[in-house]
User: What shape does this take?
Amino acid sequence: MNSALLQGSLQGYILVALLLFVIGLATVLIRRSLLVQFMGIELMLNAANVALLAFARYRGGDVQGTVFYLFIIAVAACEAAVGLALVVALYRHRHTTDSDSADALRR
Amino acid sequence: MNLTPDQVSAIMALLIPGAAACLLPLAAIDKDQATQKWIRAAMFFIALFALMGCFFYVTSLWGKGAQPSFGPVRFDRLAQFATIFILITAALAVLQLWDHLHLEGWVKGETLSLLMFSVTGMILFCSSSNLMVLFLGLELLSIPLYALTGTLRQNHEALEGGVKYFITGAVASSCFLMGAVLLYGMTGTLDAAVMASIMPRLGSDPVMLIGVALLLLGFLFKVSAVPFHQWTPDVYEAAPHPISGFMSVATKGAALFALIRIFPAALLRQEGILQGKVQAALILVAVLSLILGNLTALTQTNVKRMLAYSSISHAGYLILGLVAGTSQAFIGMGFYLVSYLAMNMGAFGLLTALGLAGDRTGYDDLRGMGWKRPELGFAAILCMFSLAGIPPTGGFYGKYMIFRELVAQGHVSLAVLGVLASLVSVAYYLRVVVALFLEKPLGATAGTDKPHRVASLASGTVLVCGLLVMLIGIFPSLLSSAFAQRAVQESLNLLK
Assistant: This one.
């Protein structure tokens, strides 16, 4: 089974990546909890990672693609730090992470 | 790794604001909220000093022309032009922040540090055609902006705006990234300039189309064009006024300069599937931005929300320049962006200069203010006329250059729509002028009007902006031929 996964075709990986991307996007659009929306964003970023590594391997282990992947991991961590800080600070004021209640600016 | 002097000079403009951004938190280490006045002054001085140093460095490079590239970072005249543009915006924002943060009673060094990181990201974003560097620049410019929006963290509206910007912005960045990855997969290169030569051979692959669409979405989000504009009014209202001005001017500028760099090579000169589609998408986006931005701005009662919708409509005018797609149109866009810098920083600075902190930013709060501070009122009139595109101000010539190219390229109906849109916009810009000069202050506020802090630095920036708008309007050829033309033509030649 393991070898079958590793020998998978490029199309399979890209399909999985696009599927993950769409699931992430749907999570952000449909779910109403800020934390779950946040997970959706992480899913979108990592879908790009899967596609990137599949492409890099398909191109014979292209260094550019592999290095890009490392950068994306670091950037996702920075984004998580700032995003979580904002969500926590908002929670301290509102005592909820429901994004439907964040409507003070739409008068 | 040994760096040659050439390589150092190519990335020096990135290192100076980056180093200042790392240095500022050291000055901001502070247990209680009341930082000593000299520490506050030192923090603002460090930020301004770094911006000025970087400015003088880049202007000295301008005479020498394009620098040898450092890996994928290419510091040519377009990048230098964009860097000068971003640095001036940031310097104006820092000066206004001094007054604004004192008005709000929340002076923290993190704000400046985040601003400098964002400046670094913008410079990086404008100086490469490599999609990996573009992604890093995009994230480095937007992540600090999420935090900057919520910088006044004692009030929950600011944080709400920050969270909204974060969620939407992160989705847009992810889309940009996915687009970049798909294009990389199809072409095997991350450089948009090299990609352009490979793309015609691939024919009409749907994955290619998805990639280009996602990539474009990332840019259009940063420009705040319809239909990726929903965040704009909320975020501009939530952020401190100088930060809103910085976001509207510098982010839009950085995204458009980056688009000018990669757009003609990678997206426009394509045979087959892409040629018509990208242009059709841009026409749709521009038309929607013009109509929706202008009409919604008419109904606003809050000046900051009005300016947010006006920034959406200005995105529409600028994208019309991309639709025309000639080098003359790109020069027009550069020119338009510089006058937009002066008039929009003036408009947002006016709110700070009049001491309207917090949520006191309705039209009613402006009533009669023009007579109290006539010099500010006059500068505000110039900025508003320029935003509306009334000659002889800078905004008029910017629109004129873009519309002229549109007509020359056969898009007469688009040019007519643009002119009509700017006629509509006169109504809501003049409403600010009317409130400033022709309406009496409301009785209640006049009675309790406490002697507010004189925001001298912010007032100074507004006057400078008013002067700049006038100068650009009177001597348009100086800016367009001496600077914008050289910037655009040189970098476009590099891509050919």
